[in-house]
Structures are given as structure tokens and as C-alpha cells.
Specification:
Layout lengths: L1 H12 L2 H49 L19 H15 L20 H9 L2 E4 L8 E4 L13 H7 L11 H4 L3 H10 L15 E2 L7 E2 L20 H16 L3 H35 L9
Antiparallel strand pairs: 1-2, 3-4
Length: 302
């Protein structure tokens, strides 16, 4: 009986169906053996790609600085205007903190009239500054008190003097700083408040300070704002963040002094065009309604 069973097994193994099943099993085993290294290769490629993306993001952040968060500026709305009290406080922060190194060459004292100061206040402020003028009748230069048409004074006479006084770094003019930098208002605000100790493994050479929002992370300007660093005339608490907000508002106005007038003119134009559109629609219906509703009959017989 065992001999017969062995004969039947040999006979089954020799059939085409059994041969096909054996080949399928072998093919499946080989496919599993191939799929294993393939999935390992795919996993390695995905890990390498993720590492490359993370490395590029970190290098981009180190090169261009950390992206500044967005802040709710009150003058960004469609119908919103500048806070003129904040502009006045921001000018005070600029005068007492920023003007020692930075200039605003595009601003004159007369630009402040009606925005942050009265005319008399602006005149008194200008008169406190001695301006080099001339030549006079003898061909000589002379000093005189400032007047409304004069530009706000510069801290240095030229770029070389500015670099020499700041260890080779050139403090930029702030007239258009919020337009010259990407996401300017948020960037300047984050930069002013972004000073911190460098992370582990990063050392700053002498004369540089760590600020992740500055391209490269190393900035020559030290931290300038501090709580109660200025005393506001209107009694507002001069916290560090309040000073940063006010000076950024002042710089935003300095870069775009026509901001309020442009928005007001836009509202006037929208109102005027809306009235014209309504008038045109009413006139069209009144003028063309009789023509569109009349009935014309052609008597072709007579």
C-alpha cells in the first residue's frame, strides 16, 4: 500500500497542474525576496529626501533669517488709518534711541506738522538743531537754527564715518526700511524684540549679537529697547513691546506718508462711482423702458 501511495504521489507530481503550482510557489517566494530589498530602498530614499528638505530649510533659515510672525497692525484694514498718537510716540523713540546711529533722510520737519505735532511744536523742534547753510555774501558757510523745510539731522556726515563708528557695520537709513524688507513691519518688530542668547554650539564673535530674525543670525546692532527706556509724554506705559510697536508705526508712516490720504481718496472714488452706477442704471431703465415695452404693428395689407 505504501508502494502504491508513493506511485500516486509521483504521478500527481508529474501532472501539469502540479508543475504549475510548484512554479507559482517558487515565483512567489522569489517575489517576496525581491520586495524586501525594494521596500528597504524606498524607505532609505524617503529618509534621505526628508533629511535633505530639512537641511535646505535650516540652511535657508540661517541665510535669510527666521520668518517673522504676523501681527495685527491697526492701520492695515481697508478703512483703517494710522494711529497718530502712536506715530508721535514712535518719533520720540526714534529720537531718543534710534537717531544715534540711523537716519531718516526722506523726512523733513514740515512732514510732521498735522500728523504728530502742531506747527509751533515742529518749529521749536527744528530750531533746536543747528544746520550748516551757505554760502553767504562772503562765500562762507555758516550755521543757523533749523526750520520746517530742513531734513531731520543725520547722525554721521558720510558712510565712512558711520562704518568707523560702528566697527565696520553701516547703519541703514530708515526712511523706507519697512518697504525695503520683506514683510517689513513684522520683520522690524520681530527683529527689535528677537534678541536672545545664542543656542548651544553657536558662538558670536566680538561686536556681534544673536538674533534669529536677522539674515545669518549675527547682527552688529545691540539690543536697544528696554522697559521704561523712554518716558512717553502722554503717560503711556513704555514697555519694550510698546516701544517697538510705536517706532514701527512711525517708520511705516515715514515710508508711506500718503497712506491715509490714499485710502480716503479711494473711499471717495468708490462712493462717487457707486452713485454714478446707480444713476446710470436708473436712467437706462427710465429711458429705454418705453422703447423696450412698446408694440410695433406692421400693416402689410394697406
Amino acid at each position: 500500500m505504501a508502494h502504491v501511495a508513493r506511485r500516486f504521489r509521483h504521478a500527481d507530481a508529474g501532472t501539469p497542474a502540479a508543475a504549475a503550482a510548484t512554479m507559482a510557489n517558487r515565483h512567489g517566494d522569489g517575489q517576496e525576496e525581491k520586495n524586501g530589498p525594494r521596500w528597504m530602498l524606498r524607505g532609505a530614499l524617503c529618509a534621505a529626501g526628508a533629511g535633505l528638505v530639512a537641511g535646505v530649510a535650516m540652511s535657508d533659515e540661517a541665510e535669510h533669517g527666521m520668518v517673522a510672525p504676523r501681527f495685527p497692525w491697526p492701520h492695515e484694514g481697508f478703512f483703517s488709518a494710522y494711529d497718530h498718537a502712536a506715530i508721535r510716540r514712535g518719533h520720540q523713540v526714534y529720537q531718543q534711541v534710534c537717531a544715534a546711529c540711523h537716519s531718516v533722510e526722506q523726512l523733513s520737519y514740515r512732514n510732521l506738522v498735522g500728523v504728530a505735532y502742531t506747527e509751533d511744536e515742529a518749529k521749536d523742534m527744528a530750531a533746536e538743531v543747528d544746520v550748516m547753510d551757505g554760502p553767504n555774501d562772503q562765500g562762507e558757510m555758516f550755521e543757523r537754527p533749523g526750520k520746517l523745510s530742513d531734513k531731520l539731522p543725520k547722525p554721521y556726515d558720510n558712510e565712512e564715518a558711520a562704518r568707523y563708528a560702528n566697527g565696520g557695520a553701516y547703519p541703514p537709513d530708515l526712511s523706507l526700511i519697512t518697504k525695503a524688507r520683506h514683510d517689513g513691519q513684522n520683520y522690524v518688530y520681530a527683529l527689535l524684540l528677537g534678541y536672545r542668547e545664542p543656542p548651544a554650539g553657536i558662538s558670536m564673535r566680538e561686536g556681534l549679537y544673536y538674533n534669529p530674525y536677522f539674515p545669518g543670525g549675527a547682527i552688529a546692532m545691540p539690543k536697544m529697547l528696554a522697559d521704561e527706556g523712554v518716558e512717553y509724554e502722554d503717560g503711556t506705559e513704555a514697555s519694550e513691546s510698546q516701544q517697538a510697536k510705536d517706532v514701527v508705526t512711525f517708520l511705516a508712516w515715514a515710508a508711506e506718508p500718503e497712506h491715509d490720504e490714499r485710502k480716503l481718496m479711494g473711499v471717495k472714488w468708490i462712493l462717487a462711482l457707486s452713485i454714478m452706477l446707480c444713476t446710470a442704471g436708473y436712467f437706462k431703465r427710465w429711458k429705454w423702458a418705453p422703447l423696450k415695452s412698446r408694440k410695433i404693428i406692421l400693416d402689410v395689407v394697406n
